[in-house]
Amino acid sequence: MFLSVTEDLVRRRAEHNNCEIFSLEEISLHQQEIEKLEHLDKWCRDLKILYLQNNLIPKIGCEELKKLDLTANFIGELSSIESLKCNIHLKELFLMGNPCTEFEGYRQFVVATLQQLKYLDSKEIERSERIKALQNYPEVKWKIREQEQAYLLKRAREKEEAQRRMQERKDEKQKQMDSKFGFDSPDSPQEKPNQAEGDGEQERCRTVENDDEDRKFWEEPTPYTPESRLETHRYIEEKRRAKDNGRESKKREKTAWTLVTAEGKVLNVNVPKLHFSLKDDEENNQIILDLAVYRHLDTSLLDVDVQPTYIRVLVKGKPFQLVLPEEVKPDSSSAKRSQTTGHLVVTMPKAKEIILAKQKVSASIKHSGCNIQQKTTRRNGQVEKLEVDPSKYSFPDVTKIIQEKERTGQGPIKLQPQKVTEVKKSCVDFENDEDVPPLI
């Protein structure tokens, strides 16, 4: 089935221009199995460079271009380049690998037809070459027309041959399917006991058949035509789909990982092979798990399940399971992604430590209260000891200090409280003398 250039295809190939096609100046549509170039000049009015290598284009049709690359297509109607005459901006044209390049007079015809060109197939066009091509243009053009007619007849025969070969392959496949279902007898009692053996044998036979089919397909000589290219493309797509389907079926048949034994014992499992750390935060009575998931992994691909004795995290369907050293409270647990590393951080408050923490606090309060009482009692005891047994502590003798002062004639004594006491004692024999001025 031949394809045309669609608006959706152009938008998908215009990612470098934010998928905007109205202002698109360059686009690559190589290896898209394109046969027709339609509406491209209307969608992309500013298009200047177009790459169309390895497609199925038989005719040329594009305008407002500066560079057009049609390498390895199936352009056999060389006269179709006349549609590019009005494109005065076209400077480079690539037609290598097309059937028309084998025509006699190919380069002279293109150089004479498109006089605005500067390069053809990466080779600069000299002024003398163009003058010579213009002189022989009528004769060269007639030869090109004859070769085009011969090419079109050849293409008609190639199409018929391709259709015949395609029909033969379909009939052969149908015969293989019929023979396969004919040999398989469902509900056969003799085959049921050896069903596993039969499945394995069928798988090996299927692999051998596929290898033989591949070898036959790639070794069979075929002409290089648009039909053979399409057939190859179809064959590769079928093999790819079959491989994908087989891979999906194997995933569905894959045995689930053992996370809990038959006896109910929870196992430690790390299928995604991620680094992790488990921290016991005694200060905040919680356990913290730091799981080094990939920084750019989408959070929607993570599934966290916290249980009282273990935690399970599914990373893209692969389980990570870890048995916890203490029981935790799943309802109070939280999970978040680190903003710097992208790691998954799960905080799990401990279940038992909450009660123990209250007991410890009350005990510490009682203990501190006892200490206060003991300190108060000790302080009171010290006061009582000072009053009861003053000889245990040494206090300066006030009378001796006064005598020492009178004898040595030194400065004032620093023990003011004792001086006040002494003054109070001497006030008993105090006499008021009016001639003495009052103290300030």
UniProtKB/TrEMBL annotation:
Alphabetic keyword roster: Cell projection, Cilium, Coiled coil, Cytoplasm, Leucine-rich repeat, Repeat
PROSITE patterns to which the protein is assigned, alphabetical: LRR
Localisation: Cell projection, Cilium; Cytoplasm
Region Disordered: start-end pairs: 158-224
What Gene Ontology terms for biological process does this UniProt record contain?
A: outer dynein arm assembly
List each copy of the U2A'/phosphoprotein 32 family A C-terminal domain by range. 103-121
Q: Name one Pfam family in it.
A: LRR_9
Q: Which GO terms describe its cellular component?
A: cilium; cytoplasm
> Where does it mainly reside?
other
Coiled-coil positions are none
> Which intervals carry biased composition (Basic and acidic residues)?
158-178, 201-219
The family line of this record is:
Belongs to the tilB family.
Tell me the protein's name: Leucine-rich repeat-containing protein 6
Tell me what organism the protein belongs to. Taeniopygia guttata
Q: What is the lineage of its organism?
A: Eukaryota, Metazoa, Chordata, Craniata, Vertebrata
- The gene designation is DNAAF11
